[in-house]
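This follows on from our talk about sequence and fold. Can you supply me with one protein entry, sequence and fold together? Could you add the entry underneath, on a fresh line?
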Amino acid sequence: SSSSSSSGSSASNSTELLKGDDIYKDVPQTVVGVFFQDNQKTSNAADDDCPFELVAGKPTISESIMGLQFNVSPKSFFQSNVPAATIVYKTAIEWSASDEGTTLLDICSGTGTIGLSMAGSVKEVVGVEMVEAAVLDARQNAERNHIENVTFYCGKAESIMPTVFAKHTSSNIVGIVDPPRCGLHSKVVKAIRACKELKRLVYVSCNQKALVANAADLCRSESNNLTGAPFKPVKVVGVDMFPHTEHCEAIMLFER
């Protein structure tokens, strides 16, 4: 796996100490690359705009899942537990009940793992992701795996969803969402509700509190503030993505 670190010290001073293959030669071979990230704030995580510098090794790691190869850069999200992620993706594919006429809308698409895994069985895949590095990875992963029926958009889902729906009209849309721990933005939920062609939604969640909040809005009665027919929860399953912790991944199917 690749490694990155954050520090409040000067980037120039730190990288002068780290640069060169001499510091990389004693690193275990399982470490593919070493990055330095300059974070000038006091926090337990660096801001997204904090710059990265490759100190040694390769700029990406390579992972294989469901017969596809994926390159992953430091800012891109990728499930670290690949065997459990395979269960999640296979479940999502099965529950989507998609076919050759389906347009798959992959919201919070990351490096494209779910969408690319399903591309062979649908008409087209449309991915939406706000992290630019992840979108670039997703496009390169599509090329690497010779998959052509995919389009990835970069931007906040709540801002670009109307444009995406306008460009990719279809009478058969299936949605898959895999949001961060905060869940889906309320505007994304409204856009999903308003798209009448989207009748099946697979929600992959790493935070069940956010899932419950989103589910309430997906399923509540139609109103002036929330147009479109409500969804109904059909089934849910948990996957032990994080062994020996209290956390788990949940997959929930919504239909209307």
